Amino acid sequence: MVYLDYAAASPLLPEVFNAMHGAETRFFANASALHTPGHLAMNEIEEVRKTLAKLIGAKPSEIIFTSGASESNNTIVRTFAGHQIETSPLEHHSIIELADKVSGNKLPKLYSYMLANNEIGEILDIQKIVKEARSLTTPKEDSLFEPISEWGKPLVTDRRGAYVHSDLTQVLGKIPINVYELGLDYATFSAHKIGGPIGVGALYVKEGVPFAPLIIGGNQENKRRGGTYNTVGIIGFGAALKKIQREKSWEQYNTHVRKLRDLLARRILTEIPGSSLNTDIAPGKSLPNILNASFQAAEGESIQLYLDAEGIVVSTGSACASGDIKPSHVLMAKTGDAEVAHSSIRFSFGLDNTEADIERVMKVLPGIIDHLQKISTIRMKET
Amino acid sequence: MENQEWIYSDKVKDHFMNPRNFLFGDEGQFDYDAVGTVGNPVCGDQMKMYIKVEDNKIADARWKTYGCASAIASTSALSEMIKGKTIDEALKIDAKAIDDYLGNLPKHKFHCSILGHQALTDAVKNYRAQK
């Protein structure tokens, strides 16, 4: 199998599997318990907290473990329910759909902008958003600033007119991150995009900023997120984080993976008529592991499934594939062309991919596209 | 449908991997009497059904599709099902009949079989209009 869907989920790393396997029997106890087995489990969790904090330039107390990126995103958007919420059109559904439902007119305002998009890999100018957020006037009073100690709500010492959240799910490990230097107040992370298990994520919440817990009913995470600790999952997340830190994986992404991605991009453009890139592959413009391309007159789900039959795994922004009515909102926002969106394929790479994988793809992809273009109702545009 | 390895039924897979009666390339390659069109590339699906009629029967059919695996399989299946049938018999082959023939599409893909039926209906309408 040639796996090119790392941006959706990455296979569990061997060291993650080993760490989790050992933890299943050793750290089974409830980590909130005061007895020794519980305490030992909590020690492991705190180690992972420190690892993530160090990797992103935060304090351990600013990290909250969650069930994944969607929960992390939902938590921050809900914190600002009734307030102005501005998002980029490229955000994940767990941000834009909820923001549409709960946003209002109050200040402080929330800006939620990804650092890099998951479908086309585009890197956004977060500094511009941070600067804009800093220019907004602080309201004199607001419920988010109330010093009353409600469940899990921190004492807000950092009063501002706006705060910035960034979903860093796709970025972690791919490029170096420092949340302080980026000027972020909140950030979202997920384990399964970096070789960790599905069902574990984290939130960075800067000290002193407003916060409302999503899950109430337990003292876990300093009353900021109720629910028994997923000790084994968090330990798996930790093993994946340690690998990133130890190997400085962003350097390998910038060299090995970028080379593969760019090679595939060049070969698609030269060998497949009617192809175009939705990802800007110029350095600094996109994550090095994502390539989104469209194939004129060929529909994405069909391309995806013909590739699947050849043992090549990719994803598509076509509506048909997701059971949705509309194609990818990201590609629509970027191209404004539904046909381009329906005809798109995302190739997302991991550190294990090789040039032989590109060769395998290019051995079959031109034939698949040619077949679909020839049975298509859409006439190829003259080039 | 339980425990099958591929996302769709074996019949859908067969008609997707080995589509029957498609019109490859230029439309001029098939001597048809009428063509019906349904859908729109903007919606992600478009089908064309080309029919050759002799003695009020569908003597032959070809199709073109821009669409997903279910759309390709539905059109391919329909092109097999209508051959040799009288026009009225062919029109009775509705979305459910196509769906049954294919061993059932997933619920959210049922509309693909509706499109096939509509493309044929449009082709027959055009055929009758020009007579």
Total number of strands of chain A: 12
Widest beta sheet: strand line-up of chain A = 2-7-6-5-4-3
- Topology-level CATH name of the largest domain in chain A: Aspartate Aminotransferase, domain 2
DSSP strand count of chain B: 3
* Helix-and-strand structural type of chain B: alpha+beta
The radius of gyration of chain A is 22 Å
Would you give an account of this structure?
The complex is a heterodimer of chains A (383) and B (131). Chain A has 2 domains: 14-247, Aspartate Aminotransferase, domain 2, CATH 3.40.640.10; 249-375, Alpha-Beta Complex (Aspartate Aminotransferase, domain 1). Helices cover 42% and strands 14% of the residues of chain A. Chain A has helices at 14-26, 36-56, 69-79, 93-102, 126-134, 179-182, 220-223, 231-247, 249-271, 300-309, 319-322, 329-335, 338-342, 355-375; strands spanning 2-3, 63-66, 83-87, 106-112, 162-167, 186-190, 201-205, 275-277, 290-295, 312-313, 315-316, 344-348. In chain A, the strands form 3 sheets. Chain A has a 6-stranded mixed β-sheet with strand order 2-7-6-5-4-3, with helices on both faces. Chain A has a 4-stranded antiparallel β-sheet with strand order 8-9-12-11. Chain A has a two-stranded parallel sheet with strand order 1-10. In chain A, helix 2 runs parallel beside helix 8, helix 8 (231-247) crosses helix 9 and helix 9 (249-271) packs parallel to helix 14. Chain A is globular and about 65 Å long. Chain B is of the alpha+beta class. Chain B has one domain: Sufe protein. Chain: A, CATH 3.90.1010. Chain B has 5 helices and 3 strands, in the order αβββαααα. In chain B, a hairpin with a 4-residue loop joins strand 1 and strand 2 (45-54). The longest helix of chain B has 20 residues, at 110-129. Chain B starts with 9 loop residues before the first helix and ends with a helix. The interface between A and B is medium-sized, with 22 and 29 residues.
